[in-house]
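agent> fetching stored inputs for the heme C docking request
agent> found them:
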Amino acid sequence: MIKLLLASLVAVSLIQAKELNTQMQEFMNTLKVEAKKQNPNFKEFDYARGEEIFTTEAIGKKGKLISCVSCHTDTLSNKGMNKHTNKVIEPLSPSANTQRFTDIKDVKKWLRRNFNDVYKREGTALEKGDVITYMIKKG
Ligand code: HEC
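agent> prediction call returned; pasting tokens
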């Protein structure tokens, strides 16, 4: 009986570990409010739209075809490599790298930079919410 109880406690804490911390939840809520302002029909962020953003190649800031996959690979639990500097990038997946999606300042800064690198503009609230949903769920 006690074993069962312990097992379920562990299960619960594992599920919670995969959830976003408070500041990230607040950030996602802010993005939702903005997305809704920009489009009253907006309902929820979407994994498939996020996947498209992450995997689509565009002529980037440096004038060459590039996508998020170019630096982060399409297996988010793997290490990536910065295409511009050849430096190793730790995995993006929060299950492989517990630091990910914990510091809202980092997330904002890198999303802004990386969107600019690939799409030559800052992502909209909808795009940011979709791509974060994808990265977190894909794990
Ligand atoms: C030219 C290489 C490159 C491209 C292209 C790129 N990234 Fe990154 N990304 C980086 C680097 C470098 C970092 C910062 C180093 C680190 O955090 O390990 C980073 C960090 C991030 C982070 C920070 C996560 C956290 O919590 O620390 C997110 C989110 C992210 N990238 C998403 C994206 C998305 C979405 C795209 C496509 C729009 C993208 N990246 C395209 C190189 C790239």
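agent> quick read of the result: The pocket of heme C is lined by residues 54, 66, 68, 70-72, 82-84, 89-90, 92, 100-101, 106-107, 110-111, 114-115, 117-118, 131 (CB under 6 Å).
agent> awaiting further instructions
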